[in-house]
Every structure is written in structure tokens, then in C-alpha cells.
Amino acid sequence: MNFGISPKRLLVTGVAAGSLLVGVAAGAAATLAATAASAASPSPSPSSSSASSSTAPTMPAHGTAANENAQVPVPGANDTQAQAAAVKAVGGGTAGAVTTDFT
């Protein structure tokens, strides 16, 4: 038996190792490029003209008596659907009243 390394075996091993290195390098380059592209793209910001023309009401601070008094029950099927979604989200139990602020 000849246990020496033949040129053919050496070539096959070299090609396999080279392919592995090229694949890892290409994967890393693609990941880095995607990360850099997402970091470089600016997030949209509202323009000053649209922000100034907004008609949003001024709301009292959360948890204050004025805020609590402004809450009104959500009517009908929307109430039931919201309660079911809340119970499902936590895996069981009972959901309280569904209310909204400033309709």
C-alpha cells in the first residue's frame, strides 16, 4: 500500500479548501454589505410643514385624572375582539375593559 500523497489527491483537497474559504468570504462580504446598506439609509422624518398642519388634540398626561376621565369604552365587536386578542397574547386569563382616549 502506498500512503504517500498523490498530486491528484493534493489538488482535490486544495480545491475543496479553497472553495470553502471563498464561500465563507463571500458570505461575510454579503452580510457586511447588507448591514452597511441598512445603516447608511436614512430613516424618514416628518417634514416641518406636515408637523405644523397636524390637528392632533393636546392630551392630558397618562395616568392623570383628566386622562382617566377622557377614556370612553370601545363599542361592540371591536371591544370583544380586542379582549380576545389580549387574552391570547398572554396565554389566558381575563381582559379588562377596552377604552380609548379622545375619540
How is this fold's topology laid out?
Layout: H1 7-40, H2 48-52, H3 65-70, E1 71-73, H4 76-90, E2 99-101
Antiparallel strand pairs: 1-2
Keywords:
single chain, about 100 residues, mainly alpha, two-stranded antiparallel sheet, about 60% helix, about 5% strand, elongated
Descriptive notes:
The chain is mainly alpha-helical. Helix content is 58%, strand content 6%. It contains four helices and two strands. It starts with 6 loop residues before the first helix and ends with a strand.
pLDDT averaged residue by residue: 73
Q: In terms of structural class, how would the helical and strand content be classed?
A: mainly alpha
Gyration radius (Cα, Å) is: 31 Å
Tell me, briefly, the overall form.
elongated
Largest sheet: 2 strands, antiparallel
| Widest beta sheet: strand line-up | 1-2
* Terminus-to-terminus distance: 89 Å
The number of helical segments is 4
What are the secondary-structure elements, in order, as H or E? HHHEHE
Low-confidence stretches: none
Report the helical percentage: 55-70%
Write down how many β-strands occur, each being a DSSP E stretch of 2 or more residues: 2
> Strand-residue fraction?
5-15%
Task: Please summarize what this structure is.
This protein has 103 residues and is mainly alpha-helical. Helix content is 58%, strand content 6%.
